[in-house]
Write a structure and sequence with these properties.
The chain is α+β, with helices and mostly antiparallel strands. The chain folds into 2 domains: 182 residues, no CATH class; 203 residues, no CATH class. 55% of the residues lie in helices and 19% in strands. The protein is built from 14 helices and 11 strands.
Length: 418
C-alpha cells in the first residue's frame, strides 16, 4: 500500500499541471461547502446569542391569560393561583435541566417611579428574592447589592439599571439618593447591569413589546419583602430559572411551568404559567437560514460531481498511457487486485489532495465573505472531516471504472499496445 501511495504522489508530481486542473473541481466544491457551512454555523450561533443571550441561559416563566401575560396593574389576582412556596421552588431546582431558580414580582407601570419631576415612563419594577440577580445574570456595577438584613428588616432600598439611573438622575450619581415608588421612598444602594450584553433580534410586534416594554425606561429592583408595601399581599409570583446550557432552555422552561401549573386550581383554563421560549424562536430563525443555505450547498455539490467526472476522465487517460506498464506487470504475475488497488489509490490520493486544498480555500473564503459582508464565521470541525472523507470517497467511486479497466486488461494485448 505504501508503494502504491508513493507511486500515486510520483504520478501527481510528474503531471503537475494536469493534476491541478483535475483537482480544480474538487477544490472548488469542497471550498464552497466549507465556506457555506462555516458561515451558516456562525450565523446560527449569532442568532442564538442575539435572541437568547450570550451564556445567560435564563428562562422567564410568567402567568399568562391566553397569549398575553396576566397584568395585575389592571385586575386583581385570579382565584386559584397560589403563592409559590419554598417547597415548590425546590422542586423546580431539582430538575436536571435547571441549574438555579428564583422567584420575583413584576409591574410595568407609567409614572410609578419618580425622582422629583423625573419619572420612569413604563419602567419595569421588580420585587426579587436573594437569588434573582445571580439567576438572571445581573451584576453590581456600582454601590452594593441586597444583603440579608435588607430582606429581614424590610428595608426600603432599591437597585437601578443604567437606563433607569440615567432617566431619573440625568447623569448624576444616584447612590444614596432617594426615589419614590408608588409614593413610597426608597434609597438607591446600587446599580446593576447584565453580565451578557448581547442585543435581542426583533422579528415581530410581540418581540418588540416584550423587549421594549422591559427595557425602554429601565429596571428598578426592590426586595420581595417590601413588595406588599407597594402593592398587595399574596400576589402571584413569577419564576426565573437558569438552565444548565442554552440547549436545555426549552426543556427547563416547559418542565418548570408544568410544575407550577400542577398547583393551579383556576376555573379559567386560559390562565397558566408559560416560559418565554426564546430558544425555540432562535431555532425557527436558524431553520429558515438553513433552508436557504442548504440550497447553496446542493449547488456547490454539483462541482464535486464535475470534479469526480474529471478524476475519472484523467484516470482513463492515465490507464491508456500506461497500458504497456500494466501489461508488463501482469506478465510478471501481478494479480488483478494489485492493479485495481494501485489505480484506486492513485485516484483517492488525487481527490484527497484536492479535498485538503479545498479545505484551505474554504476557510480563507469564509473569512473573506465575513470581511465583506460582516457575517460571523464559525469553522466546523465535523464539516472539515466530512469533506476529507467525501473527497476520498469520490476518488474511489470515480476511479473504479478506470481501475477495473486496467485490472481486466489482457497482458498480451497490453504489451502489443503502441
Amino acid at each position: 500500500m505504501l508503494e502504491n501511495i508513493r507511486l500515486a504522489f510520483q504520478g501527481v508530481w510528474d503531471h503537475k499541471l494536469r493534476s491541478i486542473l483535475t483537482m480544480l473541481g474538487i477544490i472548488i466544491g469542497i471550498g464552497s461547502i466549507i465556506a457555506i457551512v462555516s458561515t451558516i454555523k456562525g450565523t446560527n450561533e449569532q442568532i442564538k446569542e442575539n435572541l437568547v443571550g450570550s451564556g445567560n441561559n435564563a428562562v422567564n416563566i410568567q402567568l399568562y391569560q391566553g397569549d398575553w401575560t396576566l397584568d395585575l396593574s389592571y385586575q386583581s389576582p385570579p382565584d386559584g393561583v397560589p403563592v409559590i412556596s419554598q417547597e415548590v421552588l425546590e422542586e423546580v431546582k431539582a430538575l436536571d435541566e435547571v441549574e438555579d431558580a428564583s422567584l420575583y414580582y413584576t409591574r410595568n407601570e407609567y409614572d410609578a417611579v419618580s425622582n422629583g419631576i423625573q419619572t420612569l415612563n413604563g419602567g419595569l419594577i421588580l420585587g426579587v428574592d436573594e437569588n434573582y440577580l445571580n439567576v438572571y445574570g445581573y451584576q453590581i456595577t456600582k454601590g452594593r447589592g441586597f444583603v440579608e438584613k435588607d430582606f429581614t428588616g424590610n428595608r426600603k432600598v432599591a437597585l437601578l439599571d443604567k437606563i433607569a439611573a440615567s432617566n431619573l438622575f440625568s447623569g448624576t450619581d444616584p447612590i444614596g439618593k432617594t426615589i419614590e415608588i408608588k409614593g413610597e421612598p426608597f434609597t438607591v444602594i446600587g446599580l446593576v447591569g447584565k453580565k451578557a450584553t448581547a442585543q435581542p433580534v426583533i422579528n415581530s410586534m410581540e418581540d418588540y413589546y416584550r423587549y421594549m416594554s422591559n427595557n425602554s425606561s429601565g429596571v428598578v429592583c426592590v426586595t420581595d419583602a417590601v413588595w406588599p408595601i407597594i402593592y398587595q399581599f399574596d400576589e402571584p409570583q413569577n419564576l426565573m430559572v437558569r438552565a444548565r446550557s442554552t440547549d436545555d432552555m426549552t426543556d427547563a422552561g416547559e418542565k418548570a411551568a408544568d410544575i407550577l401549573n400542577a398547583y393551579l386550581t383556576v376555573t379559567d383554563e386560559t390562565i397558566k404559567y408559560k416560559g418565554e421560549d426564546l430558544l425555540e424562536q432562535a431555532n425557527k430563525l436558524q431553520e429558515l437560514s438553513n433552508a436557504t443555505n442548504q440550497q447553496l450547498i446542493w449547488i456547490a455539490s454539483i462541482s464535486l460531481l464535475v470534479g469526480g467526472i474529471g478524476v475519472m476522465n484523467i484516470m482513463l487517460v492515465s490507464v491508456t498511457e500506461r497500458t504497456r506498464e500494466i501489461g508488463l506487470k501482469k506478465a510478471l504475475g501481478a494479480k488483478k487486485s494489485k492493479i485495481l488497488v494501485q489505480f484506486l489509490t492513485e485516484a483517492a490520493v488525487l481527490t484527497l489532495m484536492g479535498g485538503i486544498l479545498g479545505i484551505i480555500v474554504g476557510i480563507i473564503l469564509a473569512y473573506v465573505i465575513s470581511g465583506i459582508s460582516s457575517a460571523p464565521v464559525a469553522i466546523s470541525g465535523p464539516a472539515i472531516a466530512l469533506a476529507v472523507a467525501f473527497s476520498t470517497v469520490i476518488g474511489v467511486v470515480f476511479g473504479m471504472v478506470p481501475s477495473v479497466k486496467a485490472a481486466n486488461m489482457n497482458p498480451i494485448d497490453a504489451l502489443r499496445h503502441e
